[in-house]
Each structure stands twice: as structure tokens, then as C-alpha cells.
């Protein structure tokens, strides 16, 4: 973990009034985090979860897909409430993350989005669970059980699918594609935004540290649990988003 000392290390900003008292830089930084979650929670629900209801093979799995869609939309609404209270910019002024360009066409592909993309969200939320902005910290901690349930559903179902020789190739293909597509999820290696987040105590980890933790966990999933190979990836990313 980065040893960069934030200006709000070990301090707590209790709400919008205290955030505004710190100035526009702090409000803007927290706003970027909130707006990213507003956009991407809605995108995930619409692009991954809703189509999965029709793809689910049994009534129980349709129920689970409905539950996860409902929870993701609920996360969107809760992040949107914090953004509105803070008075930040329009969250839809920017596009969702590129991983949401992945098209879910089979139940296996959906299962792997839960096992992999939602795992990336868990890694980010674990960091934000120590955020200096208390409303965001508390929200991430409260949503963590649902996010971990989504990942647990994905990993458990992936094990079942990979146990069938007829399904292993599709599990592997979807996993490799999604891991590669999810790497930019964490932002650029040289992100100025991330430097600002750490300076204000909003985040503790660099983007590369988060990405490395994500790769460590996906490698454990594929190699140890599913007995599949993991794609060769770089924990650095020098793309265009920050």
C-alpha cells in the first residue's frame, strides 16, 4: 500500500457542510468518486443484470438475477443521494467505464461478470471503507455485504459451470476477456485524480495497488478454484481515463 500521507490522514469529514468548509478541491474530489459510482452502478444493472434475467436457466436463478439487479439499482440510488446532498456536478456528464461495453449473451458470461467485475468493485469499496468522507465510508461499508454476495454467487456458480467439461471453455473465454477488460476499471497508473484522492484521505491505495490486488484475487479464482489458466496481464495501465 502507498505510504503517501494524506492531509486528512486519521481525520473524518462528517458531512457536506464540513466538506464545503475544506474547499472546492475536496468537494470535487469526493464528487468524482460519487459520480463514478452513480454512473457505473446503473450501467452494471442495465447492461449486465437485466439481460441475465431472461438468460437464467431456472426460476431460482431468475430470482437471484432479479435480486442482484434490484440491489445494483439500489446502490445507484444511494450513491446518487450522497452526490445530490454534496451538490456535485451531473454524474451523467461522462460515460460509464469501458468494461460495460461487454455484451452479456449467455448465462455463463453473466456469471463471470459477477465473479470478476463485481470483484473489482469490492476491491475499490474496501479502500473507500476507510474514506475521510464519513457518508461515503458508511455507505460503502453498508453495501459491502451485497457486493460480496454478488461475487460469491459468481464464484460458486462458476465452479459449478467449470466442473462440466462442456462448459469449461466458455468459462475460461469469458474470464479471460473480462479480466482484460476490467483492468482499466481502476484508472491510469499515473492518475492525478488518484494522487488527489490519497492526499485528501479519500483513498489509501494507488490505482496500480488496487489493480494488483484484483489480479491476485482473480488469479486465485482461476488457478486455484477453477483450475484454469490466468491471462498474462500488467498491473500498470497507461490509458486515457484517469
Residue runs with pLDDT of under 50 for 5 or more positions: none
Please tell me what the overall shape is: globular
Report the count of strand segments: 0
Helix content: 55-70%
CATH superfamily: Ferritin, core subunit, four-helix bundle
| CATH architecture tag | Up-down Bundle
Task: Outline the structure in words.
- The protein has helices at 16-22, 24-55, 59-86, 107-128, 134-162, 168-182, 192-199, 207-225.
- It has 242 residues and is an all-alpha fold.
- It has one domain (16-225): Ferritin, core subunit, four-helix bundle (Ferritin, Up-down Bundle), CATH 1.20.1260.10.
Short description:
This protein is mainly α and 242 residues long. It is 66% helix and 0% strand. α2 (24-55) packs antiparallel against α3, α4 (107-128) runs antiparallel to α5 and α4 runs parallel beside α6 (168-182).
Task: Itemize the secondary structure elements and their pairings.
Blueprint: H1 16-22, H2 24-55, H3 59-86, H4 107-128, H5 134-162, H6 168-182, H7 192-199, H8 207-225
Helix pairs in contact: 1-2, 2-3, 3-5, 4-5, 4-6, 4-8
GO molecular function: phenylacetyl-CoA 1,2-epoxidase activity
Enzyme class: oxidoreductase
Pfam family, one: PaaA_PaaC
